Model the fold of this input.
Amino acid sequence: MTMRPDDHRRKWDRDEYERLAEERKKEEIDRIEEDTKKKKGPPVKRELLKTREYKVDLDSKLGKSIVINKNTPTSQSGGYYCNVCDCVVKDSINFLDHINGKKHQRNLGMSMRVERSSLDAVKRRFEQNKKKMEEKKKDYDMAARMQEIAEEEEKLREYRREKRKEKRKAEEMSDEAPEQSSELASIMGFAGFGSAKKK
Done:
């Protein structure tokens, strides 16, 4: 490299800058590895997916109208509010998708894995279901059922009696009404209201 007076361009030392670039890359890689080690830590142990112990309320706000303004809290704004995730979902299908989804289950502290069933667990479940069926059969007591039927028949008879009484009263009232109107007409001085028939 000769320095001529008319050569005004700056000259760069390529080897020096390549060495600096390599050092910067190594430092960056080391920093990223340290950050991932700090962030990871021990893996989070989440419990297995369980059945819901409460009934999802989809019908309570059905058919009701709500006035929403700027100051309305998100839990009372339109749609379905999830207090676990602090979000509002606009319709019931998306709300069900949300509460069954991965994000919501994670916020509850559950993984999306289901407990593997063993043979003993399946047998216990069959026994529980069998006991429930037997209890339902015991609940179906013949004497109690006959008493319920008798009460229903008595209510039906009473209802029919009331209907008959109302019908009789209505007939009596309709029989009395023409007599009263004819008396009223004679008091006022005319026999009828312009009917074509003459007596």
